[in-house]
Write a structure and sequence with these properties.
This protein is an alpha/beta fold. It is built from nine helices and 41 strands. The chain folds into two domains: about 230 residues, Spore Coat Polysaccharide Biosynthesis Protein SpsA, Chain A (Alpha-Beta Complex); about 190 residues, Hexapeptide repeat proteins (UDP N-Acetylglucosamine Acyltransferase, domain 1), CATH 2.160.10.10.
């Protein structure tokens, strides 16, 4: 990085606002093979939370600087590209600090008048804070504006050092701070707004420092001030927002904060949550008003819960849709669809591809897998229904199973409407049970059963005298 350079100027016709998100770090303190930016938070990689907030700013383009395990990070980000005017991925092949990461994005930066720099490991930043930072930067015509916060315990953060008149002098990293500087409670959040020419010019003057000989973007503040640049800050009033995630402990703290936000938003729109401390809902889940969530409920992924439902206690739903007026009690459902007025549980398991019809009942210790259960059909207890299609108004007795696997392939069972399946019945697929048929208890059915017939397939009961 040369110390002598002419001030950079944005080209004619440059756009207004570009955003650069730094996501190249390995995150060694996470003690994980997963890149830090991809650690799940509220049901999705943490970087996606920041991207969702950035979208609200309506930037002209966003660049994400990747590095460690870049292909994994890029694969997670590419589906987000259609949501932005432009989303560019830039690889920092050698992780040499935040200043170096910004330099890797200089071709992107020079296309804009204003650049916002954010860190992927601060996913809780809110739109209001970023908007206020951008406004104070624009209105006061600063060369750089920082998002800062005042913490009672600032340990782990770089300190913002101000002069006697309140002017920002520099940012000092905690390991390099003097005892007096460590007593400063205003910290740097890692979010900045720069005038693009000032940023490009100052990055060329950064020098490596510290044991790792890295280039730190924080040094840009002191360098800009030494050149007469104007520096300002917006102090974030909510300390929760600026939490930096550098360990699994901090990730758990962020999860609790985000969960509280999510549950409070649901309660504001009319969802009853009896005990928020024991209820977990991903930020990607939709729940409609007048639904009741009991303690121990966990809702994950892209689940959607309609109005007037009762979920829990102690139910786990992932990527599952539940229709209005349905009940899910002490049960597990993954990638399933539950229609209106259905009753699930207690202790039911709906596996991938299960579709439960209106007014149906799936009861105690019943497992449904890749099957469609028709309207008002009841599988009340102790059954396994796999790879099957059950039409409407069927009753399935306790202990019934569909024998769907022959050791090599899966086969389908079809049960037509208004049939009655007795207890302890084995339906050996492929097999079709006709409408209004009755299957005698204890039968093993290996052939199709015609409509409106009684099928019994079991040894004949015989009586013999007891031997004396």
């Amino acid at each position: 990085m040369s110390k002598k350079s002419k001030p950079a100027r944005p080209p004619q016709g440059s756009q207004k606002l570009g955003v650069v998100i730094l996501a190249a770090g390995e995150g060694t303190r996470m003690k994980s093979s997963l890149p830090k930016a991809l650690h799940p938070l509220g049901g999705q990689p943490m970087i996606l939370h920041l991207l969702r907030t950035v979208r609200l700013l309506k930037p002209d383009a966003v660049a994400v600087v990747t590095g460690h395990e870049a292909k994994q990070v890029e694969a997670a980000l590419k589906p987000q590209a259609p949501l932005f005017k432009k989303l560019e991925l830039i690889c920092q092949t050698r992780q040499m600090g935040t200043g170096h990461a910004v330099t890797c994005a200089q071709n992107f930066i020079r296309c804009f008048e204003e650049i916002m720099i954010l860190c992927a490991d601060t996913p809780l930043l809110g739109f209001e804070s970023l908007w206020q930072l951008l406004q104070i930067f624009r209105n006061q015509k600063y060369q750089v504006a920082l998002l800062t916060a005042r913490l009672l315990n600032p340990r782990g953060y770089g300190r913002v050092i101000r002069g006697a008149t309140g002017d920002i002098l520099k940012i000092v990293e905690e390991l390099e701070a003097s005892p007096k500087e460590l007593n400063t409670h205003e910290i740097n959040t890692g979010a900045y707004c720069f005038q693009s020419p000032s940023l490009l010019n100052i990055c060329k003057t950064l020098t490596s420092s510290g044991a790792k000989k890295e280039y730190y973007l924080t040094d840009a503040v002191q360098l800009l001030r030494s050149q007469g640049g104007r520096i300002g800050a917006w102090i974030c009033p909510n300390a929760d927002e600026i939490l930096g995630i550098n360990s699994l402990i901090q990730l758990a703290q962020a999860e609790r904060i985000l969960s509280r936000r999510t549950l409070e938003n649901l309660m504001r729109i009319g969802v009853t949550i009896l005990d928020p401390m024991q209820t977990y809902v991903d930020s990607t889940v939709l729940v409609e008003p007048d639904t009741l969530l009991y303690p121990g409920t966990i809702l994950k992924g892209n689940s959607k819960i309609a109005s007037h439902c009762q979920i829990g206690p102690f139910s786990f739903l992932e990527n599952t849709q539940v229709g209005p007026h349905s009940v899910v009690l002490y049960s597990v459902a993954v990638e399933a669809r539950i229609a209106d007025h259905a009753i699930i549980g207690p202790f039911s398991h709906l596996r991938q591809g299960s579709s439960i019809g209106s007014y149906s009942k799936i009861g105690n210790f019943t497992e449904i897998k890749a099957s469609r259960i028709g309207r008002a059909t009841k599988v009340p207890h102790l059954a396994y229904i796999g790879d099957a299609e059950l039409e409407e108004e069927i009753n399935v007795g306790a202990g019934t199973i569909t024998c769907n696997y022959d050791g090599q392939q899966k086969h389908k069972t079809i049960i037509r409407a208004k049939s009655f399946i007795g207890s302890n019945v084995n339906l050996v697929a492929p097999v079709t049970i006709g409408h209004h048929a009755v299957i005698g208890a204890g039968s093993t059915i290996t052939e199709d059963v015609p409509p409106e017939t009684l099928a019994i397939a079991r040894p004949r009961q015989i009586h013999k005298p007891k031997k004396k």
